[in-house]
Amino acid sequence: VESNPKIQSVILASSNPKIFSAGNDISELVSPDADRLLKFWNSLQQIYIDLYGSRLGTVAAIQGHAPAAGCFLAMACDYRIMSAGHDVGGKRVVPTIGMNETKLGIAAPFWMGQMLVRTIGYRQAELALAMGTMFPPEEALGVGLVDEIVSSQQSSSSTDESDGGDVLLELLPSLMKDQVPDPVMQKAFAQAKLFAEIPSRARLESKLVTREEPIQDLIAKREEDTESFCAFVMEEAVQRNLNAYFEALKNRSKKK
């Protein structure tokens, strides 16, 4: 996608209407193999470098919850659209978004935490990181964590017509074709079209005005960050917290 000159924008979305991204796979952090943990962390760093600095116009369509690294994925995009709430299987889902790592007994890495600072401001980020705050839609909009919230009744006039709906139907993978009428996806498609209409070189250079420095900062400190994270995760107290959280997740899953 990144190397295809015919593609100028992309929508990051989920086929699960309840979850945008659940974040990191906690099972990778519980009693981890040292070599696998290193590769796991390097892959997450690379996602930051590639997505945050992508030449593409990137839009996050947040229909479900986005905790921890899910929030990070959304923040790495250029524009974030969040559902105000929608019905799934007869139940109301009101998504939340935030960096809730402290509630798992771990801390966000410096580059992820600093991205939250740049997104919502120093004091708001300081509190949110410490408390593991998960913001509902209105609050997320209020602090600037998302750019737009969309109600389930709302529609986008720019994509109601056949040129929008038909193109969405063609572009979406089979698992997501039922989301064509979804207002969040319609809005995301409209924003992606706007990004694609901006001359690509100008759009990328403008993006890098604010993103090049933090990207290069991580690249320079990548090895140090990896060593620090792996050592932290392997600490006995951290492993106890992660094990407890992982067991709670498994028990919750069994009850469903």
Short précis:
The chain is of the alpha/beta class and 256 residues long. It has ten helices and eight strands.
Describe this structure as you would to a colleague.
This protein has 256 residues and is of the alpha/beta class. The chain contains ten helices and eight strands. It has helices spanning 34-52, 69-75, 110-120, 122-131, 137-143, 157-160, 162-171, 183-197, 200-233, 236-255, and strands spanning 9-12, 57-62, 66-67, 79-83, 86-88, 91-93, 97-98, 148-150. Strands 1-2-4-8 form a four-stranded parallel sheet, sandwiched between helices. It has a two-stranded parallel ribbon with strand order 3-7. A two-stranded antiparallel sheet has the order 5-6. Strand 5 (86-88) and strand 6 form a beta hairpin. Helix 1 runs antiparallel to helix 9 (200-233) and helix 3 crosses helix 4 (122-131). It is globular, with a radius of gyration of 19 Å. The two termini are 37 Å apart.
